[in-house]
Amino acid sequence: MKFLGTTCISISALFMAGCVTRNQEPPQRLPAVSPLPSYSISSQGEIAARPWWESFERPALTSLIEQSLAQNYSLAQSVAVLKQAESLARRTGAGRKPQLNLEGNGSQDWEDGDSQRGSAEAGLALAWEVDVWNRVGSVALADRLEAQARAADVEALQLSLSAAVANSYFGAVAARERLELLNAQVTLDRELERLLQLRLDNGVGTNVDVLQQQVRVAESETLIPVAESQWAVFENRLDVLLGQTPDAKPRVANGESLDFDRALPSIDVPASLLLNRPDLRSAFSELVAADHEIAAAIADRFPNIVLGASLLYSDDSNFTGSVFTLAASFVQPLLDWGARKAEVQRNEALYEQRLAAFTQLFLEAVESVENALVREAKQSEFLQKLAKQQDLLQRTVNAAERRYTQGIDDYQPVISALQELRAVERNMITAKLDLLAIRIELFRAIGGPVRSGRSAALQPAAALQDPQLPVGLSLATRRVSSILQNHHIVGAKLFKQPNKTPTPLPSRVAACCRPQCNPVYQQDAVWTKVQPYYDSTYWTVSKGSAVAG
């Protein structure tokens, strides 16, 4: 027994000597994905400190979006998924603590004759897995990060849902304006038809003029059913987004218009999307979670040590009284035919997949902001030119009507000018709606926010802000830092680092049992103590390739 105990201790010391469960080779830098210092179109607007839809200053729209956030069933599903992830994280985290159970058993034996023999025992049993290699801790941390990713997914769905409500709302407004315009055009066309018929009756006009105007009336009337159906479709969509049964009843208040003249919101540098966009924060949390899953898979190849203790009260024919027991178990996998190694490789491949997905998502996020900025600038320019064209066409119609009433020209120039004017008037409604849709897409692209005040969208990524995270474990943090290069993140802004006086490394770094067990911290890095928007202080590198929370 003494030899066995000595052997276990020796083997444990041998495995603990490394103090690492990760490959310490520095990762390769990502190829040419560093964000630009700024977007091609700058914006010095006010930083959003309230939900993005309030910038439109439409109380009816605000009310509808708030209803959708409270009643939408897709959002309810996402919240339920978040609750599951949080529960799983709590369950996994509980595995790091000693487990105390109440145990009891009893038996009764009958032998030949009248003799009986019974036994019973009851008491407390304690079991604790000594997490020497941080396997349980890595799994628990990965589950916490997955829960943070699901929380970001909820916010991303809130952002998408609010944008869908806004698009449907303004779509309904546009459909109603288009219907009102068509009704006004039909009324005017009928009045012109009446006047032309009156001129014909007085021997001034021609029958062709009357027939041509009747064609114009018919053409205008054919567009009305289309506009009515579009209005109903948008209203039904609003019902579904609000968690209601579609009934085609109008929810858009009368008097609403598509007129919109608001400055661009504050657009930060591209790398701030890593903080502001919930889908990027979700992808980053999943990336770091995969990193810790690798650590857990590697630790699973090391010895598993479990300590136990029990205090039982026993009552049988041989002994009655309390029994206290201490126990320990030691299991070292020796032959598993490569199963655990394959699990490590699977998690490494999962990490590479999520790293590529995160990088691609970041590039697409920058693209979406750039596209929205360019499209809004050009759409505003297009609206100005369209308004100028509408003014010229209105003057052309007035001049053609004067020449017709004076008998200089026939009615054909009037019809041609009216056709062009009507088309431009309808195009103006579509162009205004497109401008609003582009602004909504811009808010989606920059990440909202969807909540007032210091929104979670303005907080650093959870994996960077959590002071409980082991600073030396995350390969993902080093990989992401290669995107940011010599920038660091503070609150909702990303600043280029000035020259700083080197600051001693935090004690938790110096306390590492081996220098290489914290590869995140480069020897040539200059560290800066930062006080971001949240309360706790964290350390971030200001020179080199590392960023850590």
Automatic annotation (TrEMBL):
Q: Where in the cell is it found?
A: Cell membrane
The UniProt entry, under Gene3D superfamilies, shows: Outer membrane efflux proteins (OEP)
Q: Which domain of life is it from?
A: Bacteria
Instruction: Kindly give the Pfam families that the UniProt entry links to this protein.
Output: OEP
Membrane topology (UniProt): Lipid-anchor
Q: Which family does it belong to?
A: Belongs to the outer membrane factor (OMF) (TC 1.B.17) family.
Q: What is this protein called?
A: Efflux transporter outer membrane subunit
